[in-house]
Amino acid sequence: MSIGLKIKEFRKKRGLTQKQLGSRCGIADSNIRKYESGIQRPKIETLRKIADALNTIVIENNGQFDLIEKGQTIIKHITHITQNDLLTYPDLDRKLSDYIKELFISYQGADSPITNHFPDELSARCEIYNTVLHHVDIKVQNGFAIYDIYPLLASPSPFDPKENCLLEKYSKLNNKGRDKLIEYANDLSQIPEYQKNFTNPKEDPELLAAHARIDVKQTSEGVQHDLDIMNNNSEWD
Questions:
Q1: What structural domains and CATH numbers belong to the chain?
Q2: What would the pLDDT profile of 78-108 be if each residue is shown by its tens digit?
Q3: 36-45, 173-182, 216-225 — which is least confidently predicted?
Q4: Is the separation of the CB atoms in 91 and 99 below 8 Å?
Q5: Which of 10, 45, 123, 160 would you label with 4, given CA atoms 20 to 30 Å apart?
């Protein structure tokens, strides 16, 4: 599908007229009409404005520009990559990084820190991690640009699904609810029982109180001897 038809598809999906779309992105509706009809191709800067107005992102696929939903995975565009491809096409890692940068910037804005957390972004990071770093196995590539984009992607273990669940719940809250959730998290982080490296004394053999041994046979005389010691106050002075 041509980029013009893709613009038209998303415009109608958003319930916008050509004039409304043009107004949103500061482009004459006559130009929007030309783009959609294929008479004229928009420059990349113009296409980015249109994509932003349609709440989509621009990606490059086989030399052609395309629009996709912000929450849509971009993995389908890179799953065909193999180790041999990386050696044959030295700029392939740059293209991968461009895809990912485009996704992150679209969610966060060009001036936002790349390490902000957003639920859709987290989902995309998980897919990128699992597909690119595991299935494609390119973490050994020296200077792979993805490490500069998001250091977490270089982690040896996948993301904790509980983190994804927490962020998903967070995204459904309003500002008041989010502030309350952060307040709860701060309170929990101050309680030793809920801290990451907390060890429960009841579960730590070294901290357990003395208890009956099962490797030594107990006699009635031995039990009585122990009771006599426990009941003799002079033994505890």
A1: 1-69 (1.10.260.40), 71-172 (no CATH)
A2: 444 444 444 454 554 555 555 555 554 544 4
A3: 216-225
A4: no
A5: 123
